[in-house]
Design goal:
Layout (H helix, E strand, L loop, with lengths): L6 E2 L4 H6 L5 H20 L3 E2 L13 H9 L4 H8 L1 H7 L16 E4 L13 E6 L2 E5 L10
Parallel strand pairs: 1-2
Antiparallel strand pairs: 3-4, 4-5
Length: about 150
């Protein structure tokens, strides 16, 4: 798979959610299996692209980020899975994945530092597309991503 440039999209949290009516031990076993598969892929140097079944099972990706960290992914690896890795695969050469003059100016600003707590990647303050704000979170006191 790696030699064929396959990227892994783990969707770890869905395994906990799809088993929500089963015993906790079944949920934990399935989650541990998928986390182990991701750990093995990352240890082999495999490429990871962030993705979930958000909307089908949940609306908050914070648990997915935490499970990726549990699988041994470092913060820079998790960040790359949501930024530069998909940009490299989906954007044209030199068009995305960088913050510099001449780039597309698609940015996400977060409420907190995700290098301290990877769940903070889910705390989006605002989003820019082509340099214009297209989303801005309502002001609220949200301790969940601290």
């Amino acid at each position: 798979m790696k030699s064929n440039h396959v990227a892994f999209n783990p969707t770890l949290h869905v395994f906990k959610c799809q088993d929500r009516h089963d015993r906790i031990s079944v949920q934990d076993k399935n989650a541990a299996t998928t986390i182990g598969q991701l750990r093995d892929w990352v240890s082999l140097g495999g490429e990871v692209i962030f993705g979930t079944d958000i909307g089908a099972v949940d609306t908050d990706p914070a648990e997915e980020y935490a499970m990726m960290a549990e699988a041994g992914m470092s913060f820079p690896q998790i960040l790359a899975s949501v930024t530069t890795t998909p940009a490299g695969r989906l954007g044209g050469p030199g068009e995305s994945g960088k913050i510099e003059v001449g780039q597309m100016a698609d940015l996400v600003a977060l409420n907190r530092d995700p290098s301290r707590n990877v769940r903070a990647l889910a705390g989006v303050a605002y989003t820019l597309r082509a340099g214009k704000v297209i989303y801005q979170a309502a002001a609220r006191n949200d301790a969940r991503n601290r």
